[in-house]
Specification:
The protein is of the alpha/beta class and 373 residues long. The protein has 13 helices and 11 strands. The strands form 2 sheets. Strands 1-2-3-7-8-9-10-11 form an 8-stranded mixed β-barrel, surrounded by 6 helices. A hairpin with a 4-residue loop joins β5 and β6. The structure holds 2-phosphoglycolic acid and zinc ion.
């Protein structure tokens, strides 16, 4: 919920949402038990009364939901991740494998490349600290490789680089060169994940690759993913097809059974959409974004639904972020297995990585390798 008053912050201010927290929401919560997270979240949804939380604002409701959880954890003298583990019935919290953005295009870099994000997964790491160090090494090497090859090294939205390659395999070649320049071995030490964000390419029944200057059908998109998988150590592909092509997603899962097929726009952290994806085998992993769902309880329900079906779960930040690090505790407390924060640059990203480093001092197990079926 934004203010809409174009004379201030281009209409993107949040004074109305803050007013709702201080007024209507505060009045409804006063005297309630902060330990009753599910009841409070249900009350918040009820109070708003609209399916997409547009009256009080999803921003107002999520901020309240997370503040209640934090207050409850403090009242129990528990670290936030431990309290989330108790809330979600997670017996063994664990540190997630990070999926780290190195090269960006799409909506994250002014459409400079067709694919939104090329990420690395430090599959060879046996601890979170090593995984993070590998990510830092590859990110630094990517800077050097791009500079050497005459590409721009300007930052994209999530702190990745935006080389503006016209062809996706050129970006993958640069990524492989960065991994090797960092003294690491592709596949053994570092695998690749791709977020196509294909909804942004889709219009009038076809995927239009503007920079590559080709148009692809669903079948050709699937063939392209298989080609990436054949030629590069790609272990995970997100939103390879648009968000309502349920039949196409099913074909992709059938065609690439050993690939992690992640639904982000497909599921939008919505429990009904995740259930539909499970029933139709439209994916085998779900991206989990708190602010797509709107409350902590709803998000925990989405994680539980995905988990019960054997789907992978990847807790994720947004391209637009604050320095709040709640998702670090969420990933650990639910033992989500994977986390996607963006690149290892920019303080709103580093806040989460640093939170995970601090949590790692509690000697928790490391969730390890990205799902490979
Ligand atoms: P968004 O990007 O926050 O812009 O949706 C993140 C993603 O696509 O995973
Ligand atoms: Zn995505």
């Amino acid at each position: 919920l934004r203010d809409g008053d174009r004379s201030m912050h281009a209409g993107l201010g949040v004074h109305r949402a803050v007013g709702h927290v201080d007024g209507e929401i505060a009045r409804a919560l006063e005297g309630r038990d902060a330990l009753a997270q599910a009841d409070i979240d249900a009350l918040l949804l009820d109070l708003d009364g609209t399916p997409s939380l547009e009256r009080l604002g999803a921003n107002a409701i999520l901020a309240t939901s997370l503040a209640v959880c934090r207050a409850a954890a403090v009242s129990q003298s528990l670290p936030l991740f431990s309290y989330i583990a108790a809330l979600s019935g997670t017996a063994r919290p664990s540190l997630p494998m990070p999926m780290v953005n190195i090269l960006s295009g799409g909506a994250h870099a002014r459409l400079g490349m067709d694919v939104q994000d090329f990420l690395i997964v430090p599959v060879g790491a046996t601890s979170f600290d090593t995984a993070l160090r590998i990510a830092l090494d590859v990110r630094r090497a990517a800077d050097a490789v791009l500079a050497k090859r005459g590409y721009s090294t300007l930052l994209a939205d999530e702190g990745g680089l935006s080389p503006g390659c016209d062809v996706s395999t050129d970006a993958l070649d640069l990524l492989i060169e960065a991994i090797e320049t960092a003294g690491l071995e592709p596949s053994r030490d570092v695998a690749i994940a791709i977020d196509v964000a294909a909804t942004g390419l889709f219009a009038d029944g076809i995927y239009a690759w503007r920079n590559e200057r080709v148009r692809r059908t669903t079948g050709e998109m699937i063939d392209m993913v298989l080609d990436w998988q054949r030629r590069y150590p790609v272990v995970s592909v997100e939103d390879a097809l648009h968000e309502d092509d349920w039949a196409g997603w099913r074909r992709l899962v059938d065609a690439a059974p050993d690939l992690q097929i992640v639904g982000d726009d497909l599921f939008a952290t919505n429990v009904e959409r995740i259930r539909r994806g499970i029933a139709t085998t439209a994916a085998n992993a779900a991206l989990i974004k708190l602010n797509q769902n709107g409350t902590l309880s709803g998000t925990l329900e989405a994680i539980a639904a995905a988990r019960a079906a054997g789907f992978g779960t990847i807790v994720s930040a947004r391209s637009g972020e604050t320095d709040d690090a709640f998702i670090a505790d969420l990933a650990v407390g639910t033992s989500a297995g994977q986390i996607k924060i963006g690149s290892v640059r920019a303080s709103e990203r580093m806040a989460k990585y640093n939170a995970l480093v601090r949590i790692s001092e509690a000697s928790l197990p490391f969730a390890g390798v990205a799902r490979s079926r």
